[in-house]
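User: Quick one: structure for sequence A, then sequence B.

Assistant: Sequence A:
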Amino acid sequence: MSESNDTQDVEELRNALHAIVDDVEPRGDTLPRLLAARQRRSRRPSRRPLLAAGGIAVAATAAFLVVLAVVPTGPQAPEPVSIAPNSYVAAPAATLASFDVLSGKRTDVLADLPAPAQGPLAADGNRVYAAVPAAEGSDIVALGADGIVRPVAHRTGAGALAAGDGLVAYSDAGEIVVDGADRPRRIAVPAGQQVDDLAVGNGGRVAVLTSDAAIHVVAPGGTELGRPMSPPAGTCGPRALAWADRNLAVLAAADCGGAERMRIATLDADNGQAVGGGTPFSTGGDLGADQVQLSADRVGRYLVSVADGRQWLVDGTDVRPVARPCSESGCATSPATFWG
């Protein structure tokens, strides 16, 4: 074989190798070894020297790719949080887990909490908030879309918790803190009043249920509760609140003289007028305002969840019980919430 042919073969071999291993990083002596093998074979008669060398290069490249595929190159990122249809979130033991609202089965363990949840959970899309006991009060922690639980606030006691529209709201020492914007907004609560429930709506409107059974709607940017809403006659004993688009859903006693039947009334948030009366359903006992959570999903269904494990799915006129959320380590003792 002539010297010019050898030079041409070597150049073609270099180009072929560069094309094959462009995106991998082989050993530094791979190319010289292949060229040396090529030159040794060139001294023997052969019809396909370049093909043989190319085969070696392909085999070597495949070996590199296999090593890259099976050998970890760094710490593994957490699995992103995913939301299954009909999913709600509860806190059995010291975990956050998702459950199917129709079958009652647990669908996923989302994260571990620093301690068992204290009070109701709150959700804003796929972001979940919980309060956990801490020194001199409680910490508000959030499960992000990346699957990691992070602390977001500390308060001096326990109380209401809500989230929505990119904001989280919680009651603390005579005020309501709304955080998530440029700076926290603080809404003063009159002396002698406590906050039983909160709901954060589109635009940052905050609905507040106080211990005197009054409902307030605070405008975006507002720092005072203002005058309470005037609910329609027959709306007695409100226990929990949730936003239903621009309207306000209120879990209230179906009979003003009793507490074992509830309904979810829908009110116009601007004037308190009734939009929907709601279907009464039996609860088997009273629901304390500090022990129950009302949440809504994207298709207009409501989940009523009580700390003692009682739960109901309200879908229009259809009301069905939901199994208590439990895991191998125990059952939830905090009210659950829809998410997504």
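Sequence B:
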Amino acid sequence: MAQRGGCMLNGCLAVLTTALVLVLFGVWRLSTAPGRADDRARHMMQESVDRSRDRLSRAAGDGALLGTEIDRSLGVGRGDEPEVRRRGRRVTVTSRFAHQGSGWYAAPVHGCYRFEVVPASAPPPVSVHELPYAACGEPVPPPAPRSPAAVAADVVVELRAALARDGFLAVQRAEVWQTYGIHLADQKVTDGRLTDLVLLDAGTNEQVCYEFRARRDTDTVTSEQSTVDDCRRFQREREKQAEDEERALLDASSAAIVRRLDHAVADGTLTDAELRRALAMQQTDEGRELVGYPSPVAVPVSVERSPAEVVVFARVNPLDTHGVALGCYEFRAHLTKHSVTRRRTAGTECFA
């Protein structure tokens, strides 16, 4: 019995010891978690710094380092403008970096780094130095943001290089369109010329419109400031073209309905049966009749009769199902004149 009691005591001690070790391990993990999270965050921030260094080197490999290239290399966003100094060919960029650690206990880490590079004909080395974070503090007064005109000048240089490299396709896909503060509103190619309508940030909640024109015959790129509203003119042109195409589709349908109604009122009457037959015209699929389900060109919504005329409001579809449009038309049968007129309405009579 004594031996059995000793085994039980030893077993209990082993369990308690194991539990104590686990508790101590858990306490240690919790107490060191913030430090580990901080180390991971600093490691991620350092990787971001290294990527920025490599991107700056590649950007400076064509003999120049533009402001737009610096912004993309550093991943600049709102309020993150770096300090850029140019002395001769040497470019010095000072920028803040930050990374948020994972976990509720993790605090963000910050750093201030200075990059120095001399652009060359091949990717040059970029020196990186970490500075006290105060060196990246907001100067007094804060530097003015780059003017839209200065940004536009950089865009011209980048687009000119893209045009020389691979024509319009390279311009349309140029890296400059990924730069913070540069918003490509629209593009259009006409007669050997590519026009880019671009909105450039010009301060808090302000933008200006620039038009960049690349010409294939002369391999040139030019820019001109315009109004913000002008940056939407291609969109308006497309909307106008779509409206014209829709109107043409529906006018063709309504004209076909009028011809059927004209035939019906040739004798000065328009019975309900004749009206139904005139409006029973079915849509086709590329000229072929549809089989299996009705698809009328015109769906009457209301019919008003008087001794002299019959007025029909109807929803009108294109003659072919491949056309996408829908409109409201008034068909007015003048019984005494043996004629029919039509007009497109605002739609309230059909879609109220």
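Residues 21 and 27 are 10 Å apart (CA to CA). DSSP finds six helices and 14 strands in the chain.

User: Thanks, that's what I needed.
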